[in-house]
């Protein structure tokens, strides 16, 4: 079973690492202070991809990110530096995605469930079949497991940063990642 878990971890790491590399091959934060406009240009697409991986709908992801930047604008004067702004954005995107998923769940209780694949053809066409299988399996995981795996392997965050972004303890992050990788392994049939 430990070998299976490592296989799922390698698949997730390859897929989300591939997406991360496509999004920002060298997104370094400059030493000089950034303006909100600079931050928007540098981080917007990365935050949209993060939201897409969490909510599985490009239009909704755009809305979540726009709300995150609006919140950042309102709180801009209270931030310490650009790294704090990026952390604020990441947390706002995760929380906004959670809200979207809660609203979807509530809406499904009142309407018959239906399956739609909201991913754009372009985004899936850029991925190999193995990568596509990983993205599909991620979409089937419980919210917290998906969040932790996406933040770890796409966001390239440490356990402490994930704990901060999601509002859970580091131990919960570690156990959630482990359970998520096991669930992915089962979903992918490896």
Automatic annotation (TrEMBL):
Ribonucleoprotein is among the record's keywords: no
Domain of life: Bacteria
RNA polymerase sigma-70 region domain ranges (all copies): 39-105
Positions of the RNA polymerase sigma factor 70 region 4 type domain: 132-184
GO terms (BP aspect): DNA-templated transcription initiation
GO-annotated molecular function: DNA binding; sigma factor activity
Annotated keywords: DNA-binding, Sigma factor, Transcription, Transcription regulation
Family per record: Belongs to the sigma-70 factor family. ECF subfamily.
UniProt cross-references to PANTHER family, sorted A to Z: ECF RNA POLYMERASE SIGMA FACTOR SIGM, RNA POLYMERASE ECF-TYPE SIGMA FACTO
Name listed for the protein in its UniProt record: RNA polymerase sigma-70 factor (Sigma-E family)
Lineage: Bacteria, Bacillati, Actinomycetota, Actinomycetes, Pseudonocardiales
């Amino acid at each position: 079973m430990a070998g299976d878990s490592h296989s799922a971890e390698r698949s997730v790491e390859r897929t989300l690492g591939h997406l991360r590399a496509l999004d920002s091959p060298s997104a370094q934060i400059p030493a000089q202070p950034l303006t909100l406009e600079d931050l928007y240009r540098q981080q917007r697409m990365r935050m949209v991809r993060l939201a897409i991986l969490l909510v599985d709908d490009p239009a909704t992801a755009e809305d979540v990110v726009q709300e995150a930047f609006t919140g950042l604008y309102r709180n801009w004067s209270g931030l310490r530096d650009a790294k704090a702004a990026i952390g604020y954005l990441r947390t706002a995107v995760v929380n906004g995605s959670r809200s979207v998923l809660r609203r979807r769940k509530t809406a499904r209780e009142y309407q018959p469930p239906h399956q739609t694949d909201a991913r754009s053809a372009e985004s899936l066409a850029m991925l190999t079949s193995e990568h596509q299988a990983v993205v599909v399996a991620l979409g089937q995981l419980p919210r917290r497991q998906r969040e932790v795996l996406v933040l770890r392997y796409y966001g390239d965050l440490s356990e402490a940063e994930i704990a901060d972004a999601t509002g859970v303890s580091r131990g919960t992050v570690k156990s959630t990642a482990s359970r998520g990788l096991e669930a992915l392994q089962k979903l992918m049939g490896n």
